[in-house]
Design goal:
With about 100 residues, the chain is an alpha+beta fold. The chain starts with a strand and ends with a helix. Strands 1, 2, 3, 4, 5 and 6 form a 6-stranded antiparallel β-sheet that branches. Helices cover about 25% and strands about 30% of the residues.
Length: about 100
């Protein structure tokens, strides 16, 4: 598998609940996934999101945390195991990219 990157973080709702989410075009859509070479572009477009590498088992490893996101309270765990629904979307988005 190529090295894929995604952006996201833990967002807190007004009711206090937290959710790890990835940057997507719209709610319910597949997350944006980019190859390693696109990292500079990725950081320009989403400077307020943390950058994660997609591992072979589709867990996520923090590559670069965003000072802007941290300032707004969006936390960046070092490792994330996506829930079942997010995992399916992540696999589908990665498989859609050319090798």
């Amino acid at each position: 598998m190529s090295t894929y990157l995604v952006a996201g973080g833990i967002f807190q709702y007004l009711d206090g609940n937290e959710l790890f989410s990835l940057v997507c075009p719209a709610p319910g859509d597949l997350p944006y996934v980019f190859k390693e070479g696109m990292k500079p572009y990725f950081k320009l477009i989403w400077p307020n999101a943390h950058l994660y590498q997609v591992e072979e088992d589709y867990t996520l490893a923090l590559v670069d945390s965003s000072p802007e996101a941290l300032q707004w309270g969006v936390t960046a765990p070092e490792r994330v195991t996506p829930d079942k629904e997010l995992g399916k979307k992540l696999r589908k988005a990665c498989m859609a990219l050319p090798a």
